[in-house]
Amino acid sequence: PKPSADPPATTVKSYACQRRTPLKHHNTFLTDALEILAENAEFNENEGRSVAFRRSASVLKALPHVVRGMDDLKNLPCLGEHSVRVIKEILEDGTSSEVESTRQSEQYQAMKALTGVFGVGVKSADRWFREGLRRPLDLIHTGQKLNLAQQAGVQYYNDLNRPVTKREAVAISHIVEKAVNAVLSGAIITLMGGFRRGKEVGHDVDFLITHLEEGAEEGLMPKVLNWLEEQGLLLYQKTTRNSYLESKDGPARPPHNLDRFERCFSIFKLEKGKEGSGTSLNTSYDSGTTEGITGTTEQPGPSWRAVRVDLVVSPFSQFAFATLGWTGSKLFERELRRWAGQEKGMSLSSHALYDSKQQRYLRANSEEEIFAHLGLEYIPPSERNA
Ligand code: DGT
Ligand code: MG
What we know:
Number of domains: 4
Order of helices and strands: HHHHHHHHHEHEHEEHEEEHHEEEH
Distance between the termini: 34 Å
Radius of gyration: 22 Å
Strand content: 5-15%
Largest sheet: 5 strands, mixed
Helix content: 25-40%
CATH topology of the largest domain: Beta Polymerase, domain 2
Number of helices: 15
CATH architecture of the largest domain: 2-Layer Sandwich
Bound molecules: 2'-deoxyguanosine-5'-triphosphate, magnesium ion
């Protein structure tokens, strides 16, 4: 037994939304490994297992030091037996045999490649994998029936799998601002997702659009998209009502507001070399509108690239919730909702916060107020990288 003069082990709170998780941390050699197993569990549609690995990884991201031995794991929450086994192996041997064999496996590699196509989810990828398909081009060669999103996904595969830089995100911001201002004055456009958390690169660029005057934002999305299309800046778009299932355990959103909340998954055409100038206008645009693929014969070349852009429009009364909900990270969001439900008897969504005990919605004008309603210390976006 060790003497009790040991320095106190680092204490880490058990919900990710109770902790500060910076973008850069000390244990990527462990978290990358655990996240491969999480990803593989997703490919096998084992959500419980996937979340368990993600939670373990997230705890290690919050540590202020490198994990050097098993002693460093004492008193840490969320580390399941399987994760501990993987960590131990890496600490002792430098690698984990399970992680390495997963990484090398045909199924993992094919699922990674196929789900890497925009518009392809785990279910389709798995079906194709079982039919013997391995690479995105196999979808074309074997004549698979693809929806419009997937067609665009294959067409722009290389571009969409190349990280979007902060510089490109800023250039896209200028374009979105210009588009929104052209159709509605006074709208507020905010960069969300990973870039709001301080990431230098992302897989897409996320924007939240609102207007101080409640209701002024209604009908905005189609107008913005029209403007973008006219300028030849859209390669693909699909607009939906926001149908994200946030929570199973409560009326998470005021039903009358549901139809005012819109989301658009799109692919922008971004001219190269003009990042930061704010203009990326192209006139030689071939306007075909179906669901939304435009310029289908065009291929990215030296002058432009395709970039995934998500646009969300929110009424101002929901803006704080939408801001919190679209900043991420995904695990941070999931943990916020779990905390709300399990610890507070509340139901949180990116529209509202419902208190089941009081049987009423709690209003908030800022993210700080939402954290306060939830009894949580405020965590700034840059420390939500759980
Ligand atoms: P990235 O783009 O891979 O660099 O990383 P993020 O964190 O920007 O991830 P992304 O773009 O998939 O999603 C942005 C944030 O928005 C994410 O952290 C959680 C949230 N989010 C994603 N999809 C939905 C959705 O369908 N509904 C709501 N309410 N939130 C979502
Ligand atoms: Mg993003």
